[in-house]
Amino acid sequence: MKKFFKLTNVFLFISIASVFAQTDNDDAVLLTIDNNKITKGEFVRIYKKNNSKETQIDNKSLNDYLELFINFKLKVLEAEKLGLDTSQSFKNELAGYRKQLAVPYLVDKDVDAQLLNEAYERKKIAIRASHILIKIPENPTPMDTLTAYNKAFDLYKKAITGEDFGKLAQENSEDETTKYLKGDISYFSVLSTVYPFENVAYNLKVGEISKPTRTSFGYHIIKLTDSKPNPGEVKVAHIMVLVPKDAKPEDVKKAEDKINEVYAKIQAGEDFSKLAIDYSDDKSSARKSGELPWFGIGRMVPEFEIASFELKNQGDYSKPIRTAFGWHIIKKIESKPVGTFDEVKSDLQTRMAKDQRSQQSREFLVEKLKKEYNYKFNDKQLQEFYLVVDTSVFSDNWKAEKAVKLIKTLFTFGDSTYTQQQFAKYIENNRKKSKKIEKSSQSMVNQYINDLFDKYLEEKVITYEEARLGFKYPPFRYLMNEYHDGILLFDLTDKMVWSKAVKDTIGLTDFYEKNKNNYLWEKRADITIFQYSNDKAKDETLKMIEKKNEKGLTNDDLVKLETKKDSSALKIIDNKLYQKGDNPAVDKIAFNADASLNKTFDTNSDKKQILVINKMLEPQIKTLYEAKGLVTADYQSFLEKNWISELRAKHTISVNKEVLSTIK
């Protein structure tokens, strides 16, 4: 993390921003360092990135920036000469940045935008649904899938012909959480469930029942029971009386009596926060007066959620309500509506990246690239794997050598050819990721090969595209070049300046000795601050302070004398040197034009404090220890200045003034 922040400083020329349009002669050579030629386009692009659009380009600012740019390039060339760009750590770091920068180029932006808009529109609506789930095994055979589908379809036919949906769910659903609620999953909004389920539910009309819908859990029959504007989010506090699942009837009654007792106290005007602390069995929220984090639709159990959103005004509280956890009394603290698109955009994008929607964008991109790069595929060559891959692929025994005779081209993409042998190796290397299946069949193997091929193809298409990003997208190429130079600049500057200044104690000390007159303390006051507990202690302390010099008393003596009878009467809370501006009260007695050592105390009645001037110190040189931070920073600047002078002396630098004059 520390290195990242330093990188932001050394990337003087490397801020991620839009690439501005260049002048017609971008390829004209502006700068030559030895045999290295830097174009006008490169300089202008970086100049504009690091200056606001409103900044006027004048000769002075342009020349000043050119000098900084030359220094930058000299350092990068020196780093390359030293071979820093060949180290594994450099390569790994640059590869990491490349991977991050490539992300927005490896999705279909149009699809992403459509999905984002769809998510926002759905976020504005809360829907309530019930469902019946027929599960499918993790690694289903075609027969498993067909059996589950047929069962689901039979239930669908019963539902649409008038049979009670809740009863069908209660008797047939394999979702153990909702079957006892007659399939009701209450209200939810976007990104609250898997995308296929959400997609179907949001496209139903109230009362409408869907055909069997496949998700990773199995087949769902969905009935939309309500749709309403999303109320947004609410913040509440609650008092909970726990009712364990296995509670005896007498314990259930005892819990109900307790929540009613608490409710009566609230109605009588007792403080909700204190009652939550004293009575709530939810100890984590009780410590916060019963407060819970903000939540929206679909985040709490239905009964709790509905009761929370039904509270209209701030401070309103509910009657005792029962949930699976026990009894609750809920108090509304605050609420807020669904935000604008710009307000929720970032959150939606973050959540969508972890959702199945992200795969849709990738799939659209792959299809687009397949057309762009003239993808050719021979299905027969893939089917030949059905004859050489058997069920041993599920038990980690299958080897690519079993496909040794498969040597044909599987598909071509762009200027690359991918063979059956390459795919055979891929199967061998990835088979360990599949779980062992007790009952497997050749049809399962064939499906597994098809699924693995789709994954293999996607990986190869994306890898192919990623390798060509620099050629296809100039902004990507520019950023990669700048990160390349920036990392080198950081590594070498750290070696020659930052770390050197810290480690070179002899050089630092010598620099300090030659420049120590630059590190001065201003006039300072040696101040002691007493704190008293009552007016009597204050008055007695003020009297003792006036006479302490003639009696030879120290500040510690004053405390001892005053605390003989009352140990809390007086104490010293601070004793240090102050400069003007450090403390307003000190400024008043020590740095005011009227201040004198005859007036050596001041009281702060609000804080019960007495301030005493022990002595005034005239300006003096700071020790190296006292000025270490400033000295180190100045020494780093000194080292860098000398280093740049050395670099400029060892290289031939030539600026084409004619080209420079064309930059507007």
Tell me what you see in this structure.
The chain is α+β, with helices and mostly antiparallel strands. It has 5 domains: 169 residues, Orthogonal Bundle (Triger factor/SurA peptide-binding fold); 105 residues, Chitinase A, domain 3 (Roll); 105 residues, Roll (Chitinase A, domain 3); 97 residues, no CATH class; 102 residues, Chitinase A, domain 3. 48% of the residues lie in helices and 17% in strands. It contains 25 helices and 20 strands. Strands 4-3-6-5 form a 4-stranded antiparallel β-sheet, sandwiched between helices. Strand 5 and strand 6 form a beta hairpin. Helix 3 packs across helix 19, helix 4 packs across helix 19 and helix 5 crosses helix 13. The chain is flat and about 105 Å long. It starts with a helix and ends with a helix. The N terminus is likely disordered.
Question: Would you state the CATH class of the largest domain?
Answer: Mainly Alpha
Distance between the termini: 38 Å
From the alpha-carbon coordinates, what is the Rg to the nearest angstrom?
A: 37 Å
What name does the CATH topology of the largest domain carry? Triger factor/SurA peptide-binding fold
Give the class from helix and strand content and strand pairing.
Answer: alpha+beta
Helix fraction by DSSP (H/I, runs of at least 4): 40-55%
- Total number of beta strands: 20
What is the residue-averaged pLDDT? 89
Low-confidence stretches: 1-24
- Describe the main β-sheet briefly: 4 strands, antiparallel
CATH-level-2 architecture of the largest domain: Orthogonal Bundle
Query: What is the number of helical segments per DSSP (H or I, 4+ residues)?
Result: 25
User: What would the principal axes of the Cα set say about the shape?
Assistant: flat
Please give the order of strands in the largest beta sheet: 4-3-6-5
How much beta, percentage-wise? 15-25%
The count of domains is: 5
